[in-house]
Amino acid sequence: MAIGASSAQAGEETDTITEREWHQQRLRRRLGRADLRAVPEARRELRELLRHWGRPGRSEIAELLTSELVTNALVHTDREAVLTAVVSAGGLRVEVRDFVARGPLPRTPDTEEDTNGRGLVLVESLADCWGVRPHGVGKSVWFELGAEAA
Fold this sequence. Notes:
Blueprint lengths: L15 E5 L3 E8 L6 H12 L8 H20 L3 E8 L2 E8 L20 H8 L2 E6 L4 E7 L5
Antiparallel strand pairs: 1-2, 2-3, 3-4, 4-6, 5-6
Helix pairs in contact: 1-2, 2-3
């Protein structure tokens, strides 16, 4: 059951849809085109969603990985994106959908000083599983974390 919804134009403030049911909680947020202010806002909203979730440190990992996926979608596509996070008894699934068919390319940064190119390396290293799912228009990059993993 949806509590709120919004359809915003690029650059406008967006509302968050949060669903709460006895078996799962969901966060859905539209991210404006190239709006990097959405990165800390998405982290804050995810932190609130995960306030009572998982072992210590799990929600911080989820925040880090979410910010990487959101940043990648906004920087590398120059389009809008949609963040969806679902918490259930089985764990957490975060998905960031963009509207560009080009797939993400995990890469190793060239130098120790270079901060670019580390996002998908972090996702691959810290997520329990992750992947890319094609859509008719664009793709979703997702990861999953179990609540109790060490």
